[in-house]
Amino acid sequence: MRQLPPLAAVRVFEAAARRGNFTRAAEELGMTQAAVSNQVKLLEERLGIALFRKSGRGVVLTPAGERIAPQVSTALDGLAEAFAAARAEDEAVMTIS
Prior knowledge:
Layout: H1 7-19, H2 22-29, H3 33-47, E1 52-55, E2 58-61, H4 63-91
Helix pairs in contact: 1-2, 1-3, 1-4, 2-3
């Protein structure tokens, strides 16, 4: 069985890492800044490592966050492509009843 953290928290981490700001990540994801902060905290607690540190009005990735951010983005891109392909296959099927 895979030992994955909650995918919602992973998705939030990826957006925050890309944006460098919890507020902008929240806007992108349609959630509050507090919800983003809570999801990141949950992920950090689950992993036992800090992924971000505060810097001025934003956040920056810690070395650990920098190591995993590109891999997480690639993994989420792969998931998006898989689901897009599944939708495209379904749209190509004609159902006659």
